[in-house]
Amino acid sequence: MTPVHTAPASIPASGSSDARSTCRLTTASPLGRIVVEGDGTAVTRLEIERAGTLSTDGEPDTPDDLTRRAVEQLAEYFSGSRQAFDVPVRLDGTLFQRAIWQSLSAIPFGATLSYGELGRQTGRATAGRAVGGAVGANPVPLIVPCHRVLASDQRITGYSAGDGVPTKIWLLDHEGISHR
Questions:
Q1: What is the pTM of this model?
Q2: Is the peptide bond before 30 cis (omega within 30 degrees of 0)?
Q3: Rounded CA gap, 49 and 105, in Å?
Q4: 115-124: per-residue pLDDT in tens?
């Protein structure tokens, strides 16, 4: 496996998964319930409930130290005492998706990038639709902060996590990011 290093998390190359069991922990948040999943060494998925439901509803939580630590860091983020996450993250995707996710991981609290800037950073300045698709496919929102991507005029163009745009508005307001 060839890791792609990001700040703060590491996003290893696609196809790097092995037969680890899934650990899961669900928590309450100002956005609704959030489920964090991991493989014992890295967080692999985060889901914010949509319309009051999670895909894992009815499945038992099977927490480990890593999912507990991720949930603790989320609580700190929501309380305003944490601005960056340091739990390890493992995301499978194409080389292009991983490049976009690495760039997302480097956007600091309270800052934004445009879809065009993300495209330029990854060498695809004219690939706006592909950049948007990669941002929307991020399996670990919040920890890999895809909510910090806006149109070049600071307009919100969508959000795939939680309840969509209202969830993104809450996150941007929480971080003091101006938007339209």
A1: 0.87
A2: no
A3: 22
A4: 999 999 888 8
Residue ranges of the chain with pLDDT lower than 50? 1-10, 13-18
For residue 65, give the nearest of 48, 81, 42, 84 by alpha carbon. Answer: 42
Question: For 7-36, how does the pLDDT look when each residue is reduced to its tens digit (9 = 90+)?
Answer: 344 455 444 444 567 999 999 999 999 999
Name the DSSP letter for residue 40: S
What is the token pair recorded at 121? 């950073």
What does the block give as tokens for 68?
A: 């507990």
Q: In whole angstroms, give the CA distance from residue 72 to residue 100.
A: 26
**23 included as an active-site residue:** no
- Give the 3-state secondary structure of residue 33: coil
DSSP-assigned beta bridge partners for residue 26: 35
Rounded distance between C-alpha atoms, residue 135 and residue 147, angstroms:
9
Residues in the chain: 180
Q: What is the dihedral of CA 9, 132, 36, 18, to 10 degrees?
A: -70
CA angle 61, 67, 68 (to 5 degrees): 90
Q: CA-to-CA distance for 27 and 136, rounded, in angstroms? A: 22
Please tell me the predicted confidence (pLDDT) of residue 20. Answer: 62
CA distance 2 to 155: 36
Q: Which of 25, 70, 146, 171 is catalytic?
A: 146
